[in-house]
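Chapter review: from sequence to fold.
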Amino acid sequence: MTVLVLDAYASVDLLLETPVRIALEAKLPPQVQRWVPEHCFAEVANAPRRGKVNGYVTTARAATAFNRLSTSPIRRAQIRPLLSDEWTKPSHLTIAGALYVALAERLHATLVTTDVRLARSPGFTVATITA
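The token string follows.
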């Protein structure tokens, strides 16, 4: 089974079924174990909420995204153990981005992201899947 770490950008694209989702899902292996650092849930939940408040996501679509997020078989990792790894990452990465990279490194996993800046960032050695 392939181990993947999803970042918030990829998670939002998958949950909100954006046009990027089809391209991203086409690149994902069939049997996967999905992981996220714990803070990802807050980052991802903010997207449909913000979209609903700003009027570009319907109430029904936001509710579906929240339901999918709360019932998705995603494994979560606590971030405190990752913090020491995060400090060793290049300074151009955000703390959130460095935590996804640190988790992928710890799990020997592939990082799934639709964040172009993160995917192109130099200085880390994990494999990535992008849309």
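Two observations follow directly from the output. The longest strand covers residues 32-37. Residues 40-54 form the longest helix (15 residues).
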